[in-house]
Amino acid sequence: MELSRREFVTAAVSATAVAAAPASAISEEQAPTTKGDAMTTTLTPYLLFEGTCHPAMEFYKSCFGGELSILKVKDSPMKDHMPPAQQEKVLNAHLKRENLEISASDWLMPNRTPRPGNTVCMYLSGGARSELEMLFAKLSEGAQVTDPLKDVFFGTYGALNDKFGVRWMFQTNSKS
Fold it and tell me: Which 3 state secondary structure label does DSSP give 86?
């Protein structure tokens, strides 16, 4: 799904309003719960680049410091499922320093076009599969589910565009 500039701005404003709301504004009934009410899923921004993920993440590392890990397609179990032109692209990059985390990859969907508005998404990762399933179900209300939650080589993965046009990706290492 490609977003118009208006849809993107609306989604960004909605996301900002939710982010600015105090945690106490969310009732316990609405908030996800796990053991001891501690949410174990992590929310990070996920950036999508057109072949420049590696230098971009190196640049962010020079700005913020931290540990950077980069996995190219050719070094992953996906290598046999991707064309030669994709082999040098970054399948996943992760920069972490204290409370700062950025995840990223190169654009790997030849049937979709990258453009401002669809190259940044919210990335929910880690935690128990049951927690991820619950969050996926809640965010799916009125959403366009582009990738239903399913087991893949790196765990469980799914993605959707919520009813406000915000792109969400979900991933956990645990499988069903």
Answer: helix
Residue 93 · residue 104 · CB < 8 Å: yes
CB atoms closer than 10 angstroms to residue 34: 14
pTM: 0.64
Q: Which domains does the chain have, with CATH numbers?
A: 42-172 (3.10.180.10)
In sequence order, what are the beta bridge partners of 160? 145, 168
Q: Report the Cα–Cα distance between both ends of the chain, in Å, rounded.
A: 28
Q: How many residues would you count in the chain?
A: 176
Span 117-173, pLDDT tens digits: 678 899 999 888 999 999 999 999 999 999 999 999 889 999 998 888 888 999 998
